Amino acid sequence: MFLKKHILLSLFFLFFVEATFGTLSTNIIVDVPKQVQIDSAKIVTVSPSKEKEDKLFADPKLKYKQTITAQKGMFERFLEWLAEKLFGSAGFENVITARQIIIWTIIIVAMGLLIWLLSKSDMVSLIKPKPKATAFNFIDVIEDLDKINFEEKIKMALADSDYRLATRWHYLKILFLMDRSKLIEFASYKTNIDYRYELKSKKHQHAFIRLSYIYEYVWYGKFVIGITDYKLKEAEFANFEKELNV
Description:
mainly alpha
């Protein structure tokens, strides 16, 4: 009787647990490997025939490695010749030195040519200032000396009692006459001192220096001179013109 009760209680407990928590079960999955297949085919190595191999590699497009002998050009031969002339041998260092000599020679010649071309062009005025008009030159005289009527200019200055200007025209006239006689080479930017050094004729040097002094005294000094002083100076200019025989 006791055993039956014990069995009934056990069954009742299992029924209660199953009703409360669900069925207690464990599923175990076993992965059964498939059958492994093995390739038992025989491997056979296939090689091209000797004829096909030779024909293939005989193609010039496949010859990547080629031995090329560099040919010396005309310039390289000239450098070797120059090195031999300068140093006695055409070694590597001598050839390099000869090359540098040629390069620097070309640079110097090119710079000299460029400077010469610039000196002959109008661009020289950018680096060399134009001569300025001073009391000693005639930059302000824009007329051609051959076309100037000096006697008329002097008369006009005397009509205005401008003896300074008349003296200046006298001085410019003797410069024109000396230029025509090939004693000097007139240029508007030159000064009296330039003409003194340029005048080689000792026969006329003393008189010219004296007239230059008069011109500087009257024009540059801006001294007021009267008709009497002017007449004395005019006579000296006239005497010098006679000495020139023009």
